[in-house]
Hints:
By secondary structure, the protein is mainly α. It has helices spanning 30-52, 59-78, 98-112, 128-151, 158-178, and strands at 16-18, 24-26, 122-123, 186-187. It contains five helices and four strands, in the order ββαααβααβ.
Amino acid sequence: MVVLNRIYTRTGDKGETALSDGSRRPKHDLRVEAYGCVDEANAALGLARLHAAGIPGGEMDAALGRIQNELFDLGADLSRPDMEKDSEEKYTPLRMIPSQTERLEQEIDAMNKDLAALRSFVLPGGSPLAAWLHLGRTMARRAERRATELAAREDVNPAAITYLNRLSDWLFVASRAANQGGAGDVLWVPGGTR
């Protein structure tokens, strides 16, 4: 359990931060950048939820709430290097697992079955909810780019990267669902302003 009695610690005043294993890294370190990008995507989804709360049934808001929690799990995963030492810990470190991605895939399939077929690329926009979901999607893609760059240099849980990849797909399909099943999508018109 996390206990935060004091928000400022002054331990980062010289440009370093602690990872979840207690090691310290510069705040510009690629691992810190990767989980920071995950945090940014999470914040965008929090704003999306302001618009999802009004959708009847509450499924979108509930799904986004669950994903926000999983993004904290993902940040915890990325903030812990050296997976080989996991078995040496007194407790099991929090890692993403394949079933989380599998659930996203099932939800993508369920949302996508009722959407109109796409005949063009979709511009971010339409409803306020769709616009925020698109912003979250682009942030998830940035987090994925940082995580894959990190994985080329250090140990990263492959399930974390797969989750980020599928999450951006989920957010794209959810944005179309938020745009009246795709009817409110803003479509790209190639060369339309020439």
